[in-house]
User: Fold this.
Amino acid sequence: MFGYSLSDLGSIVVMQGFSGLSLFSVLLLMALGLAIIFGQMGVINMAHGEFMTIGAYTIYMIGKVTEQYFPAFLPYYFFFAIAAAFAIAFIVGYLVEYLMIRHLYRRPLDTLLATWGLSLIMQQIFRSVFGGREVSPNLPDWLMGSWSVSDTIDIPINGMVVMVVTLVVTGGVVAFMFKSRWGLKVRATTQNRVMAGAVGINTNMVDRMTFAVGCGIAGIAGAAFTTIASTGPTSGSQYIVDTFLVVVFGGATSILGAVASAFSIAQAQSILTFFLTNAMGKVVTLLVVIGILMMKPEGLFASKVRK
Amino acid sequence: MRMAQPTIEKGLHMKKRWKVNQWRRAVVAAMGVALSVTMADSIAAGPPTSKVNTTGLAVTDDTVTVGILHSLTGTMAISETGAQEAEKLAIDQINAMGGVLGRQIKFIQEDGASDWPTFAEKAKKLLENDHVAAIMGCWTSASRKAVLPVLERDNGLLYYPTFYEGLEQSKNVIYTGQEATQQVFAGLDWVAKTKGAKTFYLIGSDYIWPRTTMKLARKYIETVLHGKIVGEEYAALGSTQFGSTINKIRLKKPDVIYAAVVGGSNVAWFKQLKAAGITGKKQTLLTLSVTEDEAHGIGGENLLGFYSAMKYFQSLDTAENKSFVAEFKKKWGADAPIGDVTQAAYEGPWIWKAAVEKAGSFDTDKVVKAEESGTITFDAPEGKVYLESNHHLKTRLRIGEWRADGQADIVYTSDYIMPNPFPKGY
Assistant:
């Protein structure tokens, strides 16, 4: 068929399938943090990409320290570093909410502008601290190779790691939102802030935690992406457009929507890019998204938004 | 200093006064020394200002001011950091040697902020408010194109360091990087000859430089090398997903992947190639867009065994280069990588100095005339370079094979290649 052998085509189908799934987990991981913040609080966090960059630099820093002082630990440090990335992004998010966001809840358009300004400030801080050049985190060897299933099939190990991280984080978020007491408070506040306050929920605290958790998840995403993409002061801005695309398409308020939207966008883009050129793949995907949004402006899955 | 003295002393305790007096004496003495040094300098200096500067540039009896215009903020800061560092190093070294026409070079640095209209605005400020004698700057073609009309209107001088697509030659610009024909043809010859390459897969970022370069490459591969192009692909700037593209490449099995992906995409591209099992061991890949600067971000282990076509590599084993690398690291830190563009940026101030001295004047028209004489040369770290009358440098092309430590072994050096910014038939 087309001058290619059947086994070749078979391998390509397998690898292409994996590549679509891998893109799906990347998109979902990017969008989760934003979806929580946007969905539960109605805050459009333009600095989302920079919280990812915090995660990426955390990996870089911890990698450096490990290399210097605990070289034997190098093959395993990555998982601890991911936890640290969550913690640091969480703390920064917590402070940002306290210092900035909470003063702007009644002015959603201003949060847009303020968080955009925040993203510029953060970029400049990264540049001043780490320098303008891109850095390459010292990633363990086992993470960067491929798993040769057969002669013609190679599955990227970093892709699998991102996938596992995405599964764990998504599972964690769902459990947090629907099984934990905190999740209950978050959902209550989303549905009716005044009523939630009346039954004794500290809604300010809920907001702060929600924002911080969203930022922490962005930190995890950034940490995971050091295995597949760049680490520099402006790396975060590479993701922000796709992130918004996934969240808006999925219906801003629903985690299930984010999953469905990431999956459909990833598969469409991956398959179209294979058969068309890179640019055309993206164009067609965007056109379809625009078309669907025109018919369903609230996205694939919409639920109740806080008024 | 003296004016402020009484008020300072009033507030001091008597006990401390003798200390202050002593300090003051030391300062006065130091100032005296400094003054006599500058006096001596200006006496030793070259021709009078009225002679070397007839167009109102910022030239005094002992200083001349130039501009440095690169992005210090925004996406391009990643790439432009090294260039402005090298320019400052060159200026320091020239000053230590006595300056240009007996004048010390001062510089005014402006931030283009990765934004092309800002570049134009800042160039205008440098030329019209500061009256700089020359500008070292720009990195992307887009920023150069934005600055060009300003330069031509105000008759300024720009020293542009990046390898670029060619198809341009302005009276007001000296291009110290290679234009496309210098970078593309010799590299393709090399890969066809040593690797017996017949089939090529072209991939680049989607903007003017990769597209023009690939157009030249396609024509050269098809008509001169009689090879075959099995795929041509452009990824959006900033795109980080190459999974599908890599699968296409696996299916087509090209002898050579010929790449010009830039910026953050470059990192993603090489990391994902490695993760897909496409490594230097199994696949020949020749790239036009990886210097030591990029290698720093990509990580040497992801580049191992791939090839870059550049005019300069930091590992170049010559005395000139070793002293350049040592000086650069002394000034900017041991970790600072030195790439092709950094070295080309270093050439800018030196070529300007040579041209000014040949012209005996800072006036743009006279400097340009000296530059177009075809006699300006410079013993650069990359080896001797010749400034041709078409404002580009005659240089060599080198092929470097990447090592795991982010440095390249030079495996091939071409003969000198004449710059040809307007190739016929392309």
Remarks:
- The radius of gyration of chain A is 20 Å.
- Chain A touches chain B through 56 residues (CB under 8 Å).
- The mean pLDDT of chain A is 85.
- Residues 25-240 of chain A form one domain.
